[in-house]
Amino acid sequence: MNPEQLGVKSLKPRLSNVLKDQILLQLPSLNDVESEIFACKTQLQRLGSPRTTAGERRRYLLQVSREFSLLMKAAVDGEYNHPFFGTSKSEDGYRKRLRARVQNTLTEFEQEMRVNGQDRVIVDSPPTDGEDIRP
C-alpha cells in the first residue's frame, strides 16, 4: 500500500471526501422532502384549525354550505367578483360563469331555431304552379 494512505491522518480527509460525495448525492431527495413538508403545511393552513367536537364540525359545515350558496347565487345572478370565478378570458374561468354560459347557449339555440327551426311555412296566398314553399 501507498504510505500516504496509511494512518489516521490520511484516513480523515479521504473519509471526509466520501461523506461529502454521499451528502451531495442524497441532497436532491432532501429538497423533495422539504417541498413536500411545505405543501403539507400549506394544506393544513387551508384546512384551518382542527375541529374535534361535533359542534365545531357542524359550524364548519354550516359555514362551508353558506359559502357554497353564496357562490351559486353569484353564479346565477352573474356577479363574478369572487376570486373563485377567475378571469373570463381563461377556459376554466369561463366554465365557472353559469349565467354567461346559459345566456350564450340560449343565444346560440335562438339563432339555430331562427335559421333551421321551421317545419312548415305559412303563406297568405296559395302557391302558384312551380313555386315551392318548403323551407
Automatic annotation (TrEMBL):
InterPro entries: Dynamin_stalk, P-loop_NTPase. Residues 4-107 form the Dynamin stalk domain. This is Dynamin stalk domain-containing protein.
